[in-house]
Amino acid sequence: MRQRRLWLILLLAAPGLLAICGWFAAPAVGRLHPTIELWRQVEADMGDPQDTRPDAVEAFYATAGNTAELLEAEAAAVYGRIRAGMMIAGAFVGLAVAAQGAVQMRRPLRYSFQVNQRTCLACARCMDYCPQGRGRPTGNGAGVEKQAVASGEQA
To answer: Is the dihedral of CA 100, 101, 103, 109 positive or negative?
Structure first.
């Protein structure tokens, strides 16, 4: 019972833990966005101006009305959206993991088939071919009874 309680706590914590992982993964994913990458290049060029600039930085400064402050504000807004999206995606994946874990934790009811020794002919042709069960539309032979057995118990 103690192990089951531990699993339940871990399953309930999975969405939060994966949302936090999404928060920390956002910088890596943010580097893939073109606005953030352009801001990184412009920032590097501002810190150490060189004779040759990357083409993206040249094109940025060549466009009228573009300033480093506007680009920084836009990159911060994009980064905030990426971080929120990563947290939502992490929580969704955590919810899916928790739901699957809860399904796996549940003890399923399985059916065990046992032969009724009185009516079975022992012909080794069970179910549909059993001569004792010809009149039954379900296809189960008369010599077989279905019993519900919990997965951890023996019949």
So the answer is: positive
